[in-house]
Specification:
The longest helix has 40 residues, at 2-41. It contains 15 helices and two strands. Helix 7 packs parallel to helix 15. The protein has helices spanning 2-41, 50-65, 81-89, 119-124, 132-154, 158-173, 185-204, 207-225, 235-248, 255-268, 270-280, 303-307, 310-328, 332-353, 364-383, and strands spanning 103-106, 111-114. It has two domains: 2-42 and 123-282 and 296-388, no CATH class; 50-116, no CATH class. Strands 1-2 form a two-stranded antiparallel sheet. Helix content is 65%, strand content 2%. With 391 residues, the protein is mainly alpha-helical.
């Protein structure tokens, strides 16, 4: 009893110290987020980037026509919103029949339509004109901040807490750099944060909680494809994880979860399928040009570009962390989450390494999703009693 009593002050001191570090790291993340909020509030929506005008035109169509905004026929620009915006960033004639910026020619309709899926424009349309970009980035950053704080306040060990704090600061900062490169990047990264937190629940929970996690994961993956089509690659890791669970149970369980993930994805992509149908004539046709929809380049000519910048570094770190988690995790369900992260990184890397698409953010959703999954699974693993770890 005497010995136990002596250890109480040390334990209390340790607990206080851990709680203080949690608070300090959360405040640090909030400070970085505040700088993002301030920066975004002062951004210009007309910064001379073609893609920006395309997203803002989609938002304008939704605000003007409601659901009729899915139809992006360039002839609907009778109020000259696109003409005036495009004239500010390009010397090209706004309605040049040879190449109006951000649009693709559709022979069936004999017109030009926006090449982007409708999700980013729909989110921008939630906010008033002139404050749309600020509203989008501040909202997305707030989601990432809350996700980071959730990990920080749930972490128990010094190592995991430090990793969560460092990653939280990094993930919030990345809402400016590189997410500022495209209006579709910020909401994509916010969705990845939510998916990362949900992933361990899919494999570690049971009953209604697991079913809800499956449905939400599927829906979020599907919705992410409305922001940028390449986000559908995020489904790869989850599909692999569901298949492993089905095989492990010899198809005796996890069937409902797998179906819910699939149905959620299908429900989430409905807006893009509808936009394709309206603008191209078929839900499975693309509004992107032949350049953007080119077949794979198996020379891996893009690999060097991605591996020598921030995306490549985070890709390697995420893969390494997922492999370490997989090797050291005592629980099978934690190993499954690690495998989802590994497969997700490899699928995204394989796609962008074999396509000549060069931007500072294309790999970021896949890379950040893997890192969120690894940290969320690590936090969950250390909070579970060892007696349950073998499940």
């Amino acid at each position: 009893m005497v010995e136990s009593a002596k250890t109480l002050p040390d334990r209390a001191k340790w607990t206080f110290s851990l709680g203080f570090r949690r608070l300090l790291l959360a405040i640090l993340c909030a400070a970085v987020a505040a700088s993002v909020f301030w920066s975004a509030a002062h951004w210009s929506e007309r910064r001379g980037v073609f893609d920006d005008i395309g997203y803002l035109r989609q938002a304008h169509l939704f605000q003007r026509f409601g659901l009729g905004g899915f139809d992006t026929d360039i002839r609907r620009d009778d109020d000259h919103f696109f003409r005036d915006a495009a004239a500010e960033v390009s010397a090209l004639v706004w309605n040049d029949p040879n190449r109006p910026i951000t649009h693709t020619f559709i022979p069936k309709r004999d017109t030009w339509v926006l090449q982007y899926p409708p999700g980013t424009g729909a989110l921008l349309a939630v906010f008033p004109e002139g404050r749309q970009v600020a509203g989008l980035y501040i909202s997305a950053t707030l989601v990432v901040l809350l996700a980071a704080c959730a990990l920080i306040f749930r972490a128990r060990s010094t190592l995991v807490l430090s990793a969560c704090g460092l990653f939280g600061v990094l993930s919030v900062y990345m809402m400016v750099n590189p997410a500022k490169a495209s209006y579709s990047a910020a909401p994509s990264l916010a969705i990845c944060a939510l998916l990362g937190l949900l992933t361990p629940r899919l494999f570690a929970s049971a009953g209604a909680t697991r079913l809800a996690a499956a449905a939400l994961i599927g829906l979020l993956v599907g919705l992410s494809a409305n922001l940028r089509i390449a986000n559908i690659l995020l489904a790869g890791g989850f599909g692999f994880g569901c298949l492993l669970e089905l095989l492990h149970a010899r198809f005796g369980r996890f069937k409902s979860e797998t179906v819910l993930v699939g149905l959620g994805i299908l429900a989430g992509v409905v807006p893009t399928l509808a936009a394709n149908w309206i603008n191209v004539g078929s839900p499975l046709s693309t509004t992107y040009s032949s350049v953007d929809a080119s077949p794979p380049d198996w020379t891996f000519s893009s690999a060097l570009y991605y591996l020598t910048n921030t995306q490549g570094i985070l890709l390697v770190v995420g893969l390494a962390a997922a492999i370490v988690l997989h090797v050291r995790a005592p629980a099978r369900r934690t190993r499954i989450a690690a495998q989802v992260a590994i497969v997700n990184s490899l699928i995204n890397a394989a796609f962008f390494f074999t396509h000549q698409l060069y931007t500072p953010y294309y790999l970021m959703p896949g890379v950040m999703l893997s890192l969120w999954i690894v940290l969320a699974a690590s936090v969950d693993a250390e909070r579970e009693p060892l007696a349950v770890q073998g499940v």
